[in-house]
Amino acid sequence: MTKRIDTKIISGGRNKRWTKNTVNPPVTRASTVVFNNTDEMKHATQNRGDKVMFYGRRGTDTHFALQQAINELDGYAGCALYPCGTAAIAGSLMAFLEAGDHLLMVDTTYEPTRDFCDKVLAKMGVTTTYYDPMLGADIARLVQPNTKVIFTESPGSITMEVQDLPAIVEVARSKDILVMLDNTWASPLLFDAKAHGVDVCIQAATKYIVGHSDVMMGTASTTEELWPQLREQSYLHGYCVSPDDAYLALRGLRTLGVRMRQHETNALEVANWLAARPEVAEVRHPAFESNPGHAEFKRDFNGSNGLFSVVLNCGNRAATNAMLNGMEHFKMGYSWGGFESLMLANHGTPGPRSATQWQADGPLLRLHIGLEDTQDLIEDLEAGFARFHAALQNS
Ligand SMILES: Cc1ncc(COP(=O)(O)O)c(C=O)c1O
User: Which residues carry this modification: N6-(pyridoxal phosphate)lysine (predicted)?
Assistant: First the structure.
């Protein structure tokens, strides 16, 4: 029978092998797994890569339930779990790159991803070229004979450029290059990475999968062909997560659909209100026509979420500090994807850029719109702008 995505979110990984007689799987904590006899031990050893309990680092039934749930949702053959999204990115790159290889990395990637390329991969003899997120088929110009991976992140961190994934995948396919995607913003709900030909799909599950701001976790999903390599490399690096965290991630996942739709509705309402404000020069939200890559967003994505940015046409640090310091509902924090609203200000280039140049006169505010009443959020922002102007006049 057909299972649509909301059904998959609810039923994925809910298999009696993991859940026994309850709705959710028990939290199975283990380092040592004990076997009743040598046959059982042999069976576990031979099948340790295939969801059979062998030793705690390889996972227990709680982890297997989460891995299966994610794969039922994203359609890939296997899913490796990592202690955070950054580890999933590092682990995926390390699994497929070796000394002498070349990597094409999107210029607007999450800053620690860039740092990993510059400070770890470079040391290991992997060279990186940063590319403009708006390059589609033209990315072919940057391909070198030793290019092994094209890494994408769409929309881009903070500035929200949406990439032309199908065009990039087509170039990669013709040259035997792997495409990796940091799909944290969209999650499997808003962007179907597998259907778009992405080879390795990474998520900071810390954000929308967990959804409650209380667990760090990363996932990397891949195809039948690549799974043995990703799985073994992840295992060799010793990546593992606690079963309690796996349980919480699975529990968060079950409400992904309803949360995401409410984040989308709330964020669009607040973004439209902000677009009409005199201080706002530009809204960086993929669903806005003015956002770079809006046509690709409409073509490839199934909707949006709570995270977007606005560029202001005036203001300085004193003004944004006055705004942020008095917010009641918006909290300040470097994350997003939980049920709560968050906000931060950025002055100058939002994260390092080398292939593109950020041009904006005023500061940028990044907002994560949570599940509060939007009228309360708008009133909070309105009072924030009043403090912003008062500080601007005094500075
Ligand atoms: C787009 C994106 N990818 C990856 C990460 C890293 O996730 P984690 O904080 O779990 O390492 C983040 C964190 O903010 C992110 O925003």
Answer: 207
Q: Is the peptide bond before 155 cis (omega within 30 degrees of 0)?
A: yes
Task: Report the sign of the C-alpha dihedral through residues 71, 202, 255, 29, in that order.
Answer: positive
Sequence-ordered strand ranges (E) for 244-372: 280-284, 307-312, 342-346, 364-368
> Does 298 participate in catalysis according to the annotation?
no
Q: 356 CA distance to ligand 1 centroid (A)?
A: 22
- Which pLDDT tens digit goes with each residue over 48-65? 999 999 999 999 999 999
CA of 65 to the centre of ligand 1 (A): 23
In terms of domains, do 68 and 168 share one?
Answer: yes
- Active-site residue (options: 182, 192, 245, 300): 182
Separation of 145 CA from ligand 1 center, angstroms?
A: 30
- Which two three-digit tokens encode residue 304? 């949006």
Return the HEC string of 24-81: CCCCCCCCCCCCCCHHHHHHHHHCCCCCCCCCHHHCCHHHHHHHHHHHHHHCCCEEEE
CATH of the domain at 21: 3.40.640.10
Domain that holds residue 308: 256-394
Distance 86 CA to ligand 1 centre (A): 6
Task: Supply the angle between the helices 227-236 and 85-96 in degrees, to the nearest 10.
Answer: 110
User: What is the spatial distance between Cα 35 and Cα 20, in angstroms, rounded to a whole number?
Assistant: 19
How many domains, in total, are found in the chain? Answer: 2
The radius of gyration of the chain's CA atoms, rounded to the nearest angstrom, is 22
How large is the average pLDDT for residues 136-142? 98
Q: Are residues 241 and 390 in the same domain?
A: no
pLDDT tens for 246-300 read 999 999 999 999 999 999 999 999 999 999 999 999 999 999 999 999 999 999 9
- Which pLDDT does position 85 carry in this prediction? 98
345 and 267 co-located in one domain = yes
Same structural domain, 196 and 294:
no
User: Which of 81, 82, 84, 86 has most ligand 1 atoms within 8 Å of its beta carbon, as the pocket-test mutant?
Assistant: 86
User: Cα–Cα distance between 175 and 162 in angstroms, integer?
Assistant: 23
Sign of CA dihedral 299, 303, 308, 313: positive
